[in-house]
Amino acid sequence: MSETLDYSRQEMMAIATGREVKDGELAIFGVGLSMLAGYFAQANHAPHLRTMTEGGVYGATPVGGLPWGIECNRISTNATSFTSAIDALGFLVASGRCDVGVIGAAQVDKFGNVNTTGIWDDEIGHHYRPPKIRLPGAGGANDIACGAKRFIIMVTHEPKRFAEKVTYLSSPGYLEGGNARERFGFVGGGPSAIITTLGILRPDPDTKEFQLDGWFAFSSVDEIKAHTGWDLKVSPTAHMIAEPTATELANLRKVDETGALRKH
Amino acid sequence: MSLSRLRRTSNPLQPHASATASTDDRTATITPATTREDIGEQMAQTRLISLQEAVRRYSWDGMQYASGAALPIGSDAIIFGRELLRQGRRDLHAIFHCNSQQLNLLAAAGVVIKAECGFSALEVFGFANGLRRAVESGHMALEDYSNLGLPLRLLGGALNWPFVPATVNIGSDLQYRSAFAPDDYPSTHKIPTVVDPFTGREIGAFSPLKPDLAAIHVTLADPYGNSIMLGTEWSRVELSRAAKKVIIIADAIVDTDCIRQYPNLVRIPDLVVEAVVHWPFAAWPQSSPGMYDVDEAHMKFMNKALGSEDGTAAYIRDFVTSYRDIDSYLDMIGRDKIAELGNSNTSFLLDPYRRWILPPDEVAALSAQEVAA
């Protein structure tokens, strides 16, 4: 930790995610922490970010902390347009217009494929039996993963979440790697980063296997490797990611009024 | 019957309004129509019916039932689901673009055997414990799509298309795994591959959806079913065109002059509506933008209760079978809570429409007319 700043791992994850989002882009955020990361970017360095949610809430500046839904009063209060799911996820995302999306994950694999559907004890096999733990399902993440020009995955860094291969593929990353996405004609380019509570992973340009690109001031290469469920390669240019500045933290906490990111 | 006789405030922007009936003369007889408004009112029958009657008349065991109108914790006809339980409906095939507390409740109660969803949790309120229990126990088969996949399938049903080209959900287990055909792997029937006749490229095909019944929550409806939704539409427009029958569940009933004031905002016209039910706080504990906020405490309480069989039984006893009518339903929520939830940051959204909202006695009178007719 910095000597002067005290921040949580989730706050670092949100700030690192927000830094990936550029001013002027058209951006879509999922529910929960990905919203905080996205709206942090707008509050901090991307004032002209064009924001939307998958329900069709456009132009909102959230008030009162973490929105509890994608059209709740904390963002509906400030929206400039309300439309619909087909408009947001179809006309603006599936069409290829959306620059960047931020999604969460229960499980992610080395090619950036995301599982948010369920946990099975082992391989599901050929008979699709009910999961041991049923998760939320794909929601809009599958549509963002197929259609956004790029997307960022936010996930807590734990071995059980970082699998060699996801047991259920809810939202496509690079599938089996390489140019496998081309087979399906997705207009979106795939995941550009996996941002975790410990560091940042980015895809190898050719194989598309995710490698360690950076660690945080409070983590290390060894800790990250130990918390990753596959043999994680380390990029030759891997480096420590800059700590949050006081301004970044202040801007994040302005968005995260209720302190949802400070709880862990 | 003429709504002009019941209107509280005439429309100052409509010069012919009330030309034939004064607003305070409730005994006036209907005179020959001289305005478009009067013609409409004489031709159309109000479609207002009671909630009990709507469920009795339009639902049956084993039906394909669609609801969950706007996002997991937004505008949803939850009150219709409560009444389905009260009347003992079962073996439902639920089509919910997103799970909501309604589907969570119906699944927890064991009356859903199949469901199709794009998202199955409760947003920031977490997993849907009732739904989860039903799925994990194998009692309910949950077929997964995405939040674009579901409305595209409804659009296909609405347009009477044979299939919808799928550019999403393909290349993932949404395409390869079918809960309705668990031994079919990789599934070739859920989102089958077709060839694009123009490019020769292989692409997925969604099957269209045409639910037997949709109970759609809206903020405001006139007595014929012309509806205004504040907040996002989500997929209510596509659903209203895809379903074989549409029941509108409205938080408030407005005069048709309101509808004429904002025709661009009427995205569900009476043309596709079978019946209208008036029920304030119909989406509770979820939110209805402009009208009321989510009841955070009850969202958590309800979801926790639905996590077990005993909790579900107690919830049904206390919050499903406990009220007799709208008044006792509002008492059950609590009048203080109603006032608190109604004092929302989004209340300004409702301001342009407030003057057109009909008071409960007038809505009741219009419903009585329908029953008599």
From TrEMBL, chain A:
The UniProt entry, under Gene3D superfamilies, shows:
Glutaconate Coenzyme A-transferase
Annotated GO molecular function terms are:
glutaconate CoA-transferase activity
Write out the entry's keywords from A to Z: Transferase
Enzyme class, top EC level, equals transferase
The record ties this protein, via SMART domains, to:
CoA_trans
Q: What is its EC number?
A: 2.8.3.12
Would the keyword Protein biosynthesis be found if you checked this record's keyword annotation? no
* Highest taxon in the source lineage: Bacteria
Q: InterPro entries, from UniProt? A: CoA_trans_fam_I, NagB/RpiA_transferase-like
Protein name per its UniProtKB record:
CoA synthetase
Q: Which gene encodes it?
A: gctB
